[in-house]
Amino acid sequence: MQFELAIDDYFILTPTQIGNIDLKQLLSDLKPMQKRRLSYFAKLAMGSLLQLDKSDSERLNSQMGSNCELVFASRHGDFHKTSELLDTLAAKQELSPTAFSLSVHNAVSGLYSIFKNKKIPITAISAGKDTFLSALIESYIRIHSKRLDKVILIYVDQALPDHYQCFSDEELPAHTVALELSACTESNDDSLKLAFRNETDVATNGKSNACHSLCFAEWITSVEPQLILTSERTSWVVKKL
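The structure corresponding to this sequence follows.
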């Protein structure tokens, strides 16, 4: 399989960047009551989406209509909130309805739609170690099958709670990757265009437990022309065109 995508804009939070920013600044467009509903996980995702909005608000808002969709991707979702709910159940205490509703995998994308009045279709993706690549493939399919102008892809994850770390099979520090994607055409020559190709036999020195989204985030801002992402079944070669 092979396909191409254009990145018209992006906002990325790597673990290093998260340690050097104030999340309140990323959420400055929200009302205090809205901010209070957000967990750390939700703040990372919401803040990244808002910054992508702000970076080119006039152009992006004009696209955020019937011809643009949102793909929300996360391997674990807000599992820290889920873990707290499980602890509450174990203690035989009543669950908070609000906490329960916000523990749903794609809850933060719904909150974004409500807070910013974005009446757009939203697709949620969770596919194990292949979540990020699956989200990119889903974005490509939606752009071409529905002839969309744009797809906004937001990937967010964080490390599992301490008592679940024994089940972790990849390095997964808190980070986000927010991308404004479109089809590769002559009209978007200023965009960063990428080619994706999967191969079964590709030599790679990459670690098998390396997080795809974090590797992509670090590569996209580098001068390296090619990235190889290895999964259990295949390897993906990503090239800057």
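Residues 11 and 178 are 5 Å apart (CA to CA).
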